[in-house]
Design brief:
Elements lengths: L31 H6 L12 E5 L16 H8 L24 H13 L4 E5 L9 H9 L6 E6 L4 H11 L3 E5 L5 H8 L4 H13 L5 E7 L8 H11 L2 E6 L17 H11 L2 E3 L10 E5 L5 E5 L12 E4 L4 E3 L8 E2 H6 L4 H11 L21 H4 L2
Parallel strand pairs: 1-2, 1-10, 2-3, 3-4, 4-5, 5-6, 6-9
Antiparallel strand pairs: 7-8, 8-9, 10-11, 11-12
Helix pairs in contact: 3-4, 3-11, 4-5
The protein binds S-adenosylmethionine (SAM) and iron/sulfur cluster.
Length: 385
């Protein structure tokens, strides 16, 4: 099955130009520069430009859609849909520290990837701000020629402490995760009474000139879906770029059920009933969000609907986990061991060639909601969202 936003297995999309979010004809259509250095082109002709780098699998939050280890999370899943497999908490096993890539190793991988046409780097996790001296890494990455976009996704709890240093180090953009503006719901969803800190971080990011400041909100039925309008209004009045995200089956307890997903269509209907919205079009073909501006007020709202409206056909993303595994898709069931190569003395050229081979395994699309869907063995905090 294939649609405009996904590729059918075995097909090769053919586009003539190589540009942001592009898809290249196999072996042809590449600019001379990319031909010379070699690009990361998968077997469906998608050119990869975006590398998500997870700095750690550890986190200071326990979001119930990611690491549902709190009593509140267990109660939620045991409630209406009764989908908590057993009463024993499923605790995340952290990767031993010796297996976590050093900043020097990450910098080397980013340099190699940039040489292969990667342009956007997003630092994520786990919680990236838990890495000591993260601003050092940001500063090193921001100086690499060819990095056109250096961003970070954070839960925001520690952001105020690091904001100035990150800005000075060259971080361009920041996305905060904030699923609720109600202190109790926030606590229930994240396991932490930290709404005040996150709001403080958001305000400071705007003050320091991060642009745009994005807010990600995962919407879960009967948990925070009553706040769709409130969150949108917050973005409208504060001039934020809000992204509503469909709940994906990436929680460590494997408690996800499709009944818990509030679809992008439903979110849009709710927003349109309340606000006058003007469509903004995709930022580029590989963008994940459909976006709208508010006719009155500032800010914008976007919807990321990977479950109900997959956008795999133009996916240009590659992921590096904190323990040095390359993942070609959020939902990959196989990972490719880059750490072993980094630590076995492989040259940059050897690693570049290896990466070009690895991306050939990039999946055509995910299979959420289909009978053959297999959830990845690691949760979102380990994969790097
Ligand atoms: N800790 C940071 C944070 O929360 O922003 C960065 C890592 S987190 C895994 C990255 C993003 O993934 C967050 O915006 C989070 O809301 C999202 N996320 C995590 N689990 C998810 C799930 N099961 N479905 C949809 N989005 C999810
Ligand atoms: Fe931590 Fe981010 Fe996962 Fe929440 S979504 S538990 S903040 S990694």
């Amino acid at each position: 099955m294939s649609c405009g936003r996904c590729v059918a297995p075995g097909s090769v999309l053919i586009f003539s130009a190589v540009m942001e979010g592009e898809v290249a004809e196999k072996g042809a259509g590449l600019t001379p520069a990319l031909m010379g250095r070699g690009a990361l082109v998968d077997s469906y002709g998608r050119v990869l430009r975006d590398l998500r780098v997870s700095l750690t699998d550890r986190c200071n939050f326990r979001c119930l859609y990611c690491l549902p280890e709190t009593e509140a999370a267990r109660n939620f899943y045991r409630g209406r849909w009764a989908n908590m497999p057993n009463s024993t908490p499923i605790l995340q096993q952290w990767v031993p520290r010796s297996q976590i890539l050093s900043f020097e190793e990450i910098e080397r991988v980013v340099r190699i990837a940039i040489g292969l046409g990667i342009r956007k780097i997003r630092l994520t996790g786990g919680e990236p701000l838990l890495r000591q001296n993260v601003e050092w890494l940001v500063s090193r990455l921001s100086q690499i020629e060819g990095v056109t976009d250096l961003a970070m996704t954070t839960n925001g709890f520690l952001f105020s402490k690091k904001a100035q240093a990150l800005r000075e180090a060259g971080l361009g953009r920041v996305s905060f995760s904030m699923d609720s503006l109600d202190r109790e719901t926030f606590k229930k969803m994240t396991g932490r009474d930290g709404l005040g800190e996150v709001l403080g971080g958001l305000a400071l990011a705007q003050e320091l000139g991060f642009e745009p400041v994005k807010v990600n909100a995962v919407v879960i039925r009967d948990l925070n879906d009553h706040e769709i309008e409130v969150l949108a209004d917050f973005a409208r009045t504060r001039g934020l770029s809000l992204r509503f995200i469909e709940f994906m089956p990436l929680d460590s307890a494997r408690a996800w059920l499709k009944e818990m997903v509030v679809t992008g269509r439903e979110i849009l209907e709710r927003l349109q009933a309340r606000f006058s919205l003007r469509p903004l079009g995709l930022a580029n073909p590989s963008a994940t969000a459909k976006r709208w501006a508010f006719s009155e007020g500032r800010g914008e709202v976007g919807i990321i609907a990977p479950v109900s409206e997959p956008f795999c056909g133009h996916c240009n993303r590659l992921r590096l986990t904190a323990d040095g595994k390359i993942r070609t898709c959020l939902f990959s069931v196989a990972e490719h061991d880059l750490r072993a190569r980094l630590r076995d003395g492989a040259s940059d050229e050897t690693i570049a060639e290896w990466l070009q081979g690895v991306v050939k395994h990039k999946e055509a699309r995910h299979h959420i909601g289909e009978p053959d869907f297999v959830a990845p063995s690691r949760s979102m905090s380990c994969i790097g969202g």
